[in-house]
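task queued by scheduler; priority normal; single chain, no ligands, no partner chains; default sampling; output format set to structure tokens
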Amino acid sequence: MIIVLTAGVASIVVLPLQNYVAQGDEITRLETELGRLEAVNADLAAEVARLRTDDGIREAARDELGYVADGEVRQTVLGSGGLPIDLPNGWPYGGLADIIAMRSAGG
């Protein structure tokens, strides 16, 4: 009798309570995700508004298509491209390796 009563209480109280708590956690997670998505949408809307201006169109044409206005000269500067740096141990390469490591770290 006690087992049946315990099972009845569990099915009437405990299991719905667990579902309620789990749903609350899921709602909190989804609200957080919604907030992030709304922030992304606001950023994209601002970008669209900027690109609808004459300056935005010119900037996009420069970045995406390589547009150069009259009287301007385009110069392309390439980065290091993450080349491997294998330097021998010892003088003077130890100091050079330290300089390269500091610059790579942004310091």
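post-processing summary
- The longest helix spans residues 2-51.
- The chain has a mean pLDDT of 83.
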